[in-house]
Amino acid sequence: MDNLEALYKQIVMDHYKKPRNKGKLTDEGALQLPYKNPTCGDVMVLYMNVDENDRITDIKFEGEGCSISMASCSMMTDVVKGKTVEEAKHAIHLFNDMIKKGELPEDEDALGDALALSGVHKLRARHNCSLLGWNGLEKALHQQEEHRH
Ligand code: ZN
Asked: Domain count of the chain?
């Protein structure tokens, strides 16, 4: 295992053991979306507040699953909290390209700690685990848009 791989593994385990933004949002108007990865049994519920300027002011999750899926949710919430819906969609796109195509983002900061999951590209059976948080976010944003219009 090279140094970068070891560092990435450490970052993944850190998010798994100390998840960021874990919990619920109970205020009225908070979006709540359950999502699961049937291939591994990972489950999560995403909670999100989007303000009138299309900014994600708060985001939390609850979940249970393998270390990759839970780290993915934690990293995702860290990356998109405070961002606009458009910026969040861009991050979803970058993360999908990294996992499915093995393409790293040009701007390394664009995905924050989620960059540490880049090695999952080679583990096809774990793609859905690493995408759990991001797929859930995509669905939540879609639902939020439908709610608006
Ligand atoms: Zn999993």
From this structure: 1
DSSP states of 52-70 = TTSBEEEEEEEEE--HHHH
Distance 65 CA to ligand 1 centre (A): 6
Ligand 1 midpoint to CA 38 (Å): 9
Could you list the residue range(s) of the whole structural domain that residue 8 is in?
Answer: 3-148
pLDDT digits (tens, 9 = 90+) for 74-116: 999 999 999 999 999 999 999 999 999 999 999 988 999 999 9
Distance 141 CA to ligand 1 centre (A): 22
> How far is ligand 1, taken at its centre, from the CA of residue 75, in Å?
15
Whether pTM exceeds 0.85: yes
The CATH number that applies at residue 140 is: 3.90.1010.10
